[in-house]
Amino acid sequence: SDASRFQLAERAVRRHRLPIEHLTTSMSHVVRYVLALDAQLSEHLVSPDEVRTWQRSERPRWESAKQTAPVVDVLTKFAAREELLRLVEDYRLAKTSAGVMDFSDQMALSARLVEAWPEVGAQERTNYRVVLLDEYQDTSVAQARLLRALFSGGSDDAGRGHPVTAVGDPCQAIYGWRGASATNIDAFPADFPPRSSGRPETRRFPLNVNRRSLASVLDTANALAAPLYAEHPGVHPLTAAPGADAGEVRAAVVETFDDELDYLAREVPRAYERMSSPRWSDIGVLVRDNLAAAAVHDRLVAADVPVEVVGLSGLLTRPEVVEVVATLEVLHDVTANAALLQLLTGPRWNIGPRDLALLGRRARELAARADEGAGSLADALEAAVAGTDPADVASLLEALQSPGGRAFSAEARRRFSWLSQELRHLRRQVGAPLLDLVRRVIDVTGIDVELASSSSRQARARRDNLSTFLDAVASFAGLDSDASLPGLLAYLQAEEEYGRGMSLALPTEADSVKLLTVHKAKGLEWDVVFVPGLTKDVFPTRQVRPRWTTSAHELPWPLRGDVADLPQLLDCSRKGLEEFTASCRRHERLEELRLAYVAFTRPRKALIASGYWWGPEQSTLRGPSQFLDTLLASLRQRGDEPELSFPRPPDGAENPSNRKLQSYLWPLETSGEELAGRRSAAALVRRAQQVGSVVASRAADGHLLPDESVLVQQWDLELARLVEEAAAAQATDIAVRLPTFLSATTALRLEHDAEVLARDLARPMPRRPSPAARFGTRFHSWVEAYSGQQHLLDPDELPGRGDSDIGSDAELQQLIETFTSGPFGELSPHRVEAPFALVLGGHVLRGRIDAVYETPTGYRVVDWKTSAKQTADPLQLAIYRLAWAELMGADLEQVEAAFYYVRSGEAVTYDDLPGRAELERLLSLPADCAAP
Asked: Which domain holds residue 53?
């Protein structure tokens, strides 16, 4: 999985012992680079040695060129890539030792296998007489070579002309960053030629009738995609289904980014009210990236619109999550200046600009002291060209801990001291289990208490966001007991930077507006789709994709399998690099156009797009992007006008948002109602502290200074801990801590057999294989296949794993006949073997629900029982019921639960299944057992 890849890569990097000189960035960045280069090597079937050989042959050309800064940077990236290749090899050894592989490994290994052994392809062509390939534009180079070797060949006897049909749209090829090649669909006729004795060329069938979207939506998408149709001559403009309505396309050009937020907050509820059968979930809001997602979310929530942020990347922009992640970054890296600045300027610490400037000067002063007498001028020059970031040397955290004699305000000094103590305390917890550490950060920083006490409308949504983030951390940590903080940070940074590198998150079925990036929206559809931010430098973005000349983790493009379709570097010089950069920008604009095309083809009935002239902070005029200009031209061609069209501001005009900001003081004051509540709470705390101080002073033998009191308290805590450890060492019983991650079966044992469970946790022992369990597994597999929802096999679930010493075939057949004639035999399940991860009482319960059926009022979760006796524990159903309700965003009362005893054909239900509170009380019970 994506998360386990980061964990394993972080461990491989951490254990590397050879010197690293050119990869001077943080551990989390290096982990991301290792994974990126490893994936590209696999996707293009290139070995690390082939990269080294190519670099050795290319290096003399660059070394003989004029050594301008861009040329030197290319040579530096060559050296960094050499180091990165060693780390990639360590990571691959770690995967081999663990017996695991990721998706790109599977594709590369499969492609090499079928290319080396033609009989594999011959066997597969015998097994599959006709082959259909869907979404072929999203295949990688390795996948295309695999399919070509399986179902085509150089001669008729070697597979040429095997019946293969590929369906795809190169205009929607938006996964180039993930290894997909948009030209695979164009190259299909050459890769899969007809038989030499048959039709002379591959046949093309245009699928240009779109039965999802209405006519005006498709007309707009066609106008946008005109350059794409020219790029791919075999692709034709889309047409609506016969008899389809006209549909609706609307546009707005407003003055500022804030005006666009107001427009969304006004128009989204209106779109809901105009629906014949209103459902919030029939509305989607698609953004280019998550930079503006937080502002859109807050403005919609303030307008009482239920909103779901789809995907982890969207959560990472939320202020409540940003503070947690920033704290984790500071705990991991003392030079994480940006993260510490995020905390200092946030609403909790609220440090003003004057004190921040002094803190920066203090950091530079400490760094200068460390560098005094560090070396000669030659050493200084070498360090200067090594690309070292000054932020990696001047640590704001060191300045925070040692502010010196600079003229900080008294309040800033107090807050610096409190924050330093808090971070020191949390740093002692870094070795704790990952989920415990994150929960500790939330507890110590008081974020959950702050949100619980807030009176704002957004508070509930923010609490939900924090809960969802904890679920994501639990899911990450649940894959590996050795999950580490650097691995988690690398995982989060990759998701935040790319917003689409992790496992794709799907929207829940909750009735809420879905807010997500366009990348995550591919394959989805809504009645009404809003596409805000169609503004210059926003969509299309100005962000530059990694290039092999400037990024060590990029596979050199001349080694890629799709090199013919990428920009070419023609000369090893500054001018050659500049021309290459310009060519890359043209290529990226085409990629952005494909992304916009995907956005414009998501709505079924209405497309509503908008843009603005002024960004939230920019002093340079922006205005509508070329995508919005195209939409406006299409609109006017049909005789319509945008519903809002703010005229272009005159030259020299000032951003109104900046004028508004000039009237504010920083740090910002909290809103009046919340500020009054906080002050009232603070007064109560001070009163309690005063009472406690009086009692303490009466009981004390002497008077202690504040620093001395803190020291004595620390001594008391350490003494209490030592006494507790001594008592535990002499105890006849030992306390066994429940693991953070539990199976549903383990949770049931906690209720009914806690002592035996504790003994098993203290001394895990292998268990004898159960024929009855294998029999149940075999029946479950049959139900999956019968329902048409059989999952792809994991490596440890290959055929034959559970076929020894099981029940007789006759007994299995009898059970199958009983099931097919029973009440569930004719029903089509909504989901089969549905996985879940449920956080309860500080523990993560993982499991799979056998089957879920839709009912008129909601859902019914069903657990198959193949045993003869009806002895199943209803708590199992309670866990499944709660897990499915929270997964779907449904009320618990909407989810029924039942055991189905297949042998008797009887379904057993319960009316009083416990809810979340009762289950959490269950998991809070201690589990003790006698010591050996």
From this structure: 2-101
CA distances from residue 534 to 475, 551, 624, 632 in whole angstroms, order as listed: 35, 29, 6, 11
Closest CA to 285 of 887, 301, 273: 301
The predicted model scores a pTM of 0.62
**Regarding predicted confidence, which is higher, 632 or 788?**
632
Q: What dihedral do alpha carbons 884, 890, 894, 895 form, nearest 10°?
A: 0
Give the pLDDT score at 760.
63
Confidence of residue 371 (pLDDT cuts 50, 70, 90): low
Instruction: Identify whether residues 57 and 129 lie together within a single domain.
Output: no
Domain end (from 62, 78, 101) = 101
Give pLDDT, residue 408.
87
205, 228, 245 - which closes a domain = 205
CA distance 834 to 847: 8
Q: Is residue 506 part of a domain?
A: no
**What are 335-355's pLDDT values in tens digits?**
888 888 888 888 788 888 888
Whether residue 196 sits in one domain with residue 168:
yes
In a domain, 246, yes or no: yes
Radius of gyration of the CA atoms of the chain, in A: 31
Half-sphere exposure of 279 (CA within 13 A, CB side): 10
Amino acid of residue 922: L
Note whether 919 and 853 are same-domain residues: yes
Number of domains in the chain: 5
Across 691-695, 743-747, 822-826, least confident range: 691-695
CB 105 within 8 A of CB 95: yes
Query: Are residue 450 and residue 479 in the same domain, yes or no?
Result: yes
Q: What is the mean pLDDT of residues 22-48?
A: 89
Give the span between the Cα atoms of 712 and 437, in whole angstroms. Answer: 26
Question: What is the distance between the alpha carbons of residues 591 and 781, in angstroms, rounded to a whole number?
Answer: 42
In the predicted model, is pLDDT for residue 790 greater than 80? no
Q: List, as one string, the DSSP characters of 185-253.
A: TTTHHHHSPPPTTS-SS-------EESSS-HHHHHHHHHHTHHHHHHSTT----EEPTT----EEEEEE
Report the amino acid identity of residue 107: M
Same domain, yes or no: 348 and 493: yes
End-to-end CA distance of the chain: 39
Report for 206-210, 216-220, 471-475: range of highest mean pLDDT: 216-220
Residue 771 has pLDDT above 60, yes or no: no
Contact between 91 and 8 (Cβ < 8 Å): yes
Q: Which CATH number do you get for residue 146? A: 3.40.50.300
Per-residue 3-state assignment (H helix, E strand, C coil) for 625-642: CHHHHHHHHHHHHCCCCC
Whether residue 894 has pLDDT greater than 60: yes
Q: Quick check: is 555 in a domain?
A: yes
Over residues 327-334, mean pLDDT: 88
